[in-house]
Amino acid sequence: MTMKFSRSTILAVFMIGTFAIGMTEYAVTGLLTQFAADLDVAVSTTGLLLSVYAISVAICGPVLRILTVKFSPKPLLIVLMAVFIISNIIAATAPNFEVLLLSRLLSATMHAPFFGLCMSMAVEISQPHKRTSSIAAVQGGLTIAIMIGVPFGSYIGGVLDWRLVFWFIALMGLINLIGLMIVTPNIKQKEAPKLKNELAVLKNKNVWMLIAVIVFGFSGVFTAYTFTEPMLQEIAGFNVTSITIALFLFGTGAVIGNFVSGSIQPEVLTERLILAMAILGTVLISFTFLLANPFFTYIACFLFGAGTFGTTPILNAKIILAATEAPALSGTIAASVFNLANSIGATLGSILLTNHFSYREITFVAGGMIFFGVILMFVTHKIEDKSLFRAAENAYD
Q1: What integer is the mean pLDDT of 80-90?
Q2: pLDDT tens track for 294-311
């Protein structure tokens, strides 16, 4: 495979795309009241913009990837980004809530395939010892969106107009589209992926154990994260400025955790993941206690972000490296499973709060779920095929 541009340049273009998608996914959390006022719906109804997106990514992503499995990566990435741009233009011009919701559904369909393709291509163009860092780079766009894009979007929406946020995201998508056309290598597949072979991943015990860790363990993150803002307000007594600083520190921790975990070599991914999840579970269980002190609150938010997004690229890497029979589907499966966990965790948190659980009890449940994931990782470590995570062949710088 010949590449006209360096690996770093290609990964930078991928990061721009994942930044835009991450901003689309999470920026709405700071715009719900504006949606409600402008489109004449209840704030509770606007929550559908989050849940519908996550569920759609989890369900539509793998289906769309299966339907497009024989397409070459570069043209498919271009088409997916074009869909993304159109969906955000629809959102920016939405005359009512129903159209806005439809735009979210359209945007969600391309989320998992785009992330999956970017991660798979990042692995393919990288040397074996750089594959984890390549996946972290792709994921890095999402974490930077959480650190910078989401606060920026909330500010623009609050001071000016929420529609400008979607116009900005569409512009980022256009920049990425041009980058994809120019920079992305046109990888020629020796033979078109066979769907039957790709679906053989459903029999892969290594992949299923990792999916179980994410769904039953890592989803605990979202059980607590959903209520981070009200916890900061009610327990820590933070005002808007202090909450903004705390959320920025969460995003800063996310970026640092993401890129630090990207330096981990494939052969020690499992051991590092067990350690990272154990620390994350401890942070969640102690979270409400730390909120009693402003200084420790900031530290807790930083550690929460670092732990959450420090484990994500490791789990992504393990799924992609383990799913050897599904090089085309593996990345999409990883992205979809994380959004399924997002939806499950947020729903569980809402149910617990509705049933009068305290925030402290909710964080205990969340931390307990993470530790259950740690137990599953110990089991995974015993039964997984460790040869899958050893560098075998060379790739490109």
Answers
A1: 95
A2: 999 999 999 999 998 888
Exposure string for 132-141, b = 16+ CB within 10 A, e = fewer? bbbbbbbbbb
Q: Which residues contact 295 (CB under 8 A, 6 or more apart)?
A: none
Specify the residue for token string 């969640």: 284
Average pLDDT over residues 65-77: 82
Q: How far apart are CA 115 and CA 122, in angstroms?
A: 10
Question: Does residue 394 surpass a pLDDT of 60?
Answer: no
- Nearest alpha-carbon partner for 311 in 275, 335, 343: 275
Token pair listed for 368:
């307990």
Alpha helices in the chain (DSSP H): 7-26, 32-39, 43-46, 48-67, 73-92, 97-124, 131-144, 150-159, 162-183, 195-198, 205-212, 220-225, 228-234, 240-261, 269-290, 294-322, 330-354, 359-383
Global pTM reads 0.76
**Rounded Cα gap, residues 229 and 28, in angstroms:** 14
